[in-house]
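tool=predict chain=A
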Amino acid sequence: MTYGRGPNGERTESRGGGGLATALRGLVEQHDTTWIANAMTDEDRVVAGERQHGTMLLAQDPDAYARFYNVAANPTLWFLQHMLWNLGRTPDWDDERHDAWTNGYVPVNASMARAVVAELERDPDADVFFHDYHLYLAPAIVRREAPDAVMSHFVHVPWPETDAWSVLPEPLRRDVFAGLLANDVVGFHTDRWRRSFLRGCADVLGARVDGHVVEHEGRRTRVTAHPIGIDTAEFEALAAGEEVCARERELVASRTEMLVLRVDRTDPSKNVVRGLRAFGVMLERHPELRGRARMLALLDPSRQDIPEYADYVAAIEREAEKLGDCVDLRVGDDFARSVAAYKQFDALLVNAVFDGLNLVSKEAPYVNTRDGVLVLSENAGSHAELGEWALTVNPFDVSGQADALYVALTMKPEEKRRRLDAIRAHVRAHDVREWGELQMADLLRLRSRR
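tool=predict ok
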């Protein structure tokens, strides 16, 4: 949850965005948990120290947190793990970036670790579940203070091959891998990311890898691959709700015959600019679709305090302007509108450069009512699950994406229906509840062997 203030001064709560928040909401609902997170907003800082619905927010030193979030975690680690750096020019490990790690990433991880240790002192039998690239160092700190703790760490972003990690100076690189191996379990969405991590453990640390188990400094860490699902009941209810249906009526009243949709954050890894170009190329090749096909791009502004992200929004706006009325670009947080658009798309473009998973590729087809076709990047983690029913694209091949969009819009109705029905069945069978159960089962197996 993120906290704010309403027009009358009352405290407000809003759902967190992204796959990580979705995953944690499911776990919190299913289990007795304490969710420890960093305070992000001014009201979060007021809430810090209180327990709100099982949530504990930590108020970090503002300067340390700015270094941690705006330089070390985003963009440094995010760009590294999504392979976004232009290595001929960026990044430079100058004094600012070293300072951001030493006086930002390290102390914030230490603060989170201290909060976890305090919870373990209160409840020594609690399981500890870390998440994502923000907290790679915290598990090792907790392990030193609580050597018998049962700990798991799920990485929601891609894990690149070893060479990509050379962006980090060697001591930092080793600390990242060693920090993760302080856990009993390390989880990824796909076997692709798991394989890369296992190879990296051997290459960076010289660790022994035996199947899906890593042995390092006398510890054994099991590495798993469990793709997250969606809350199908939640999306069924949202799709049928009045707020979404009202947005859908607005959309239907203004839509063209064919609707190409993308719903993303304004993040360079989402590849929005190339997607806009691909749509433009499709219209150039098939002028008969002008006036009949339109792209709706619903984009949630992301990390605008970071120059690389702000620059990318400007690039998106420039590209959309070239296409004129052929594109309806909306930048803002309107989840009801996104779900309404999910119901109405004829082609859904998910062309991420790299993605740990990509929940939009599951959410949108699940509630779609028009037998829409999924056009999916081969570098999205969800491709491992959905690829056989999607149209696969290379995220760097603008021409190929244009061709795929045309195929999607002109595909025979029975083939569209077959593909969408198969995706729906898969998403229904492998929902977020299953993902949570698999995480808990991994930890239960650990406890049973102790």
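The CA atoms of residues 174 and 205 lie 6 Å apart. The chain has a mean pLDDT of 92.
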